[in-house]
Design a protein that fits this description.
Blueprint: H1 5-14, H2 22-31, H3 42-58, H4 71-90, H5 94-116, H6 125-147
Length: 148
């Protein structure tokens, strides 16, 4: 599965020289998980996975079929939160919108952005661009939450 053309246009507008090797990105993402973070010892990495699973559970979501600290699980969780936020917004449930934004902000800041910052492969500059976009999303969420 390849990204939609709109995604490629956005990425190339940020850096027109970026080389997008979908296969390399896919292979890298398949192994990108908190259990691979070399800056932590084995026990800390295992506890981090458990902590992330608890975060999902405390937020009201179940990911029992997936590795909680895997990048794809984390992104799927964010997509679900955004989808739920849109539904709450359309239902004029602004209390729930605010609640979901807090969860997104906390999750991005605590887990997803730190994981993406661990990417050191210069051949995958695209991951750094995605990381920057996610950081901008976190800043937007912060502004939304501060305005309330």
């Amino acid at each position: 599965m390849y990204p939609p053309n709109e995604a490629l246009v956005i990425i190339r507008s940020i850096d027109p020289n970026v080389i997008i090797n979908i296969d390399a990105i896919s292979q890298y993402l398949n192994k990108l998980s908190v259990k691979e973070l070399k800056k932590y010892d084995l026990i800390t990495r295992q506890l981090l996975n458990q902590t992330i699973r608890e975060f999902y559970r405390n937020a009201g979501y179940d990911v029992s079929d997936a590795e909680p600290g895997h990048i794809l699980t984390m992104i799927a969780f964010m997509v679900k939160l955004i989808d739920d936020e849109i539904k709450a917004f359309n239902a004029n449930d602004f209390e729930k919108v605010n609640f979901l934004r807090k969860i997104q902000h906390r999750f991005l800041n605590t887990y997803l952005i730190p994981l993406l910052k661990e990417v050191n492969d210069d051949n995958l500059k695209i991951i750094k661009i995605i990381s920057a976009l996610i950081e901008n999303d976190m800043l937007y969420l912060r502004e939304c939450l501060l305005q309330k």
